[in-house]
Design brief:
This is AraC family transcriptional regulator. By secondary structure, the chain is of the alpha+beta class. The chain has 16 helices and seven strands. The strands form two sheets. A five-stranded mixed β-sheet has the order 3-4-7-5-6. Strands 1-2 form a two-stranded antiparallel sheet. The two termini are 24 Å apart.
Length: 337
């Protein structure tokens, strides 16, 4: 999934503490090729490259990898130090235990607790200061980043069985199924922590990355975390990947099912079990490819329509306006620059 996009509500959530602390966030947005006016367009989306660039600028300016979300900042270099420690572990179980130990020693921001049961492994995330209230974005960002690091370390899919969250569903809640595939997402849990649950059988996965691999990863860590391609085993991810390779043929469900060697009814049922319909998945892929092309390339609108599997530019234009609230021409002028 090389063409993903980020919803504007998530961007607004990421920038909220910096704004409250008086930082001139418009400067970061402009440097990341994101026009500040887009913050007022809730249906718009930006590319992963734009978002990760903005994050990097904010983190460096604030000297806080938590971007102001905790009363105890996590200084720049913290995650890098953790990764250097993790690449020396032997397997996933040892890496999870070391994450627990690292944050116990750090004593800032989040406390991360690792435990196992007969069938599951668990990572619990809670503020170091027990009565501190941390915004949902900080939890999702922190949990998502750590899960992606685990998949990178093992060069393997590390499926999350369940995500337990102690806050209400955000406006971009539908994106959670792509953040933590193929997990059951539970909001509004009455508990003091958020939690990722894994099947215990994964604990024996070997760590395959070394120091040289880490140096490459750390050149663009935030972008690499967003674009990590190892979590591809959910039916949602597999169908999206198949769709991307077939999009120019304008495939229906039956064609994609044949490509995946599964009966169409079974594929539809498996997607529904993961909380998404085939047409919604197809629309999201088309939207993300279009947004990436509009903001990162000089491809014509007609060319983007063809790239996203539309026979007519007018049909693409209507669909894009339904997805984002504006036409592709307007989107490119306001967002792509």
């Amino acid at each position: 999934m090389n063409d993903i996009s980020i919803p504007i509500p998530l961007l607004n959530a990421a920038l909220a503490p910096a704004k409250d602390q008086g930082y001139q966030v418009d400067q970061w947005l402009i440097q990341a090729s994101i026009p500040p006016v887009i913050l007022q367009q809730p249906n718009a989306r930006i590319s992963a490259a734009q978002y990760s660039h903005m994050q990097s600028l904010a983190i460096r300016a604030m000297n806080d990898e938590l971007m102001g979300f905790s009363q105890s900042p996590q200084r720049v270099g913290t995650s890098q130090a953790l990764c250097h420690w993790l690449v020396t572990t032997k397997n996933l179980a040892q890496a999870l235990a070391r994450i627990n130990q690292f944050y116990d020693l750090l004593g800032q921001g989040f406390r991360v607790s690792y435990s196992t049961s007969a069938s599951h492994a668990s990572l619990k995330f809670a503020p170091v200061v027990s009565d501190e209230i941390i915004a949902p974005f900080a939890y999702e960002h922190f949990m998502f980043a750590h899960h992606r690091v685990l998949t990178w370390l093992t060069s393997h899919d590390v499926p999350v069985q369940a995500v337990h969250l102690n806050y209400s569903r955000p406006t971009h809640g539908s994106d959670y199924r792509f953040m933590f595939p193929p997990a059951e997402i539970q909001f509004d849990r009455v508990q003091s922590f958020c939690e990722l649950l894994f099947d215990r059988s994964l604990l024996s996965l070997p760590i395959k990355q070394g120091q040289e691999d880490l140096l490459l990863f750390l050149r663009r860590p935030l972008f690499n975390i967003l674009m990590n391609a190892y979590s591809e085993q959910s039916w949602t991810a597999r169908t999206r990947t198949a769709l991307q390779s077939l999009l120019y043929t304008r495939p229906n469900l039956e064609a994609v099912a044949e490509h995946l060697d599964i009966h169409p009814k079974r594929l539809r049922r498996r997607l529904k079990n993961e909380g998404i319909e085939y047409q919604d998945l197809k629309d999201q892929l088309r939207r993300d490819i279009a947004i990436n092309a509009l903001t990162q390339s000089g491809e014509s609108i007609e060319g983007i329509a063809e790239l996203t599997g539309f026979a007519e530019t007018s049909t693409f234009t209507r669909s894009f306006k339904r997805w984002t609230g504006v036409t592709p021409y307007t989107y490119r002028r306001k967002v792509g620059g």
